[in-house]
Amino acid sequence: MWIVVSQGLSSGKVIDDIGEKLGLCGEEWHRRNERENSVQIYNLLKTRRFVLLLDDLWKKVNLSEIGVPHPSRENGCKIAFTTRSLDVCGQMGVDRKLVEAQRLNWNWGY
């Protein structure tokens, strides 16, 4: 799943975006609160292997709050994210596997 988490985006919007990608956003979804929806996401994702890309992070995202199980060898799940901030990398617990993208030169980027 690819979820854009731009500056100022709320956890509720991230939960809704994940729910939409998982096909959970029906009438009942919109009647429940964020916490109930994040629990539904968690219950579904804990039974699956998944890859989640959180694009354009500006601050730490609490995975538990948005219903995403923490990746482990046992569950085979992967989470990647993009950010411009090394501080966010540290807040998200990245201590290795950090890939810093280099800017394209003008000719390659145009």
Automatic annotation (TrEMBL):
Source organism of this protein record: Microthlaspi erraticum
Record carries keyword Cytoplasm: no
GO molecular function (one): ADP binding
Biological process terms in GO annotation: defense response
Record's keyword terms, sorted: Plant defense
Superkingdom as given in the UniProt entry: Eukaryota
Pfam families (UniProt xref): NB-ARC (PF00931)
Domain NB-ARC: 1-104
Protein name: NB-ARC domain-containing protein
InterPro entries named in the record: NB-ARC, P-loop_NTPase
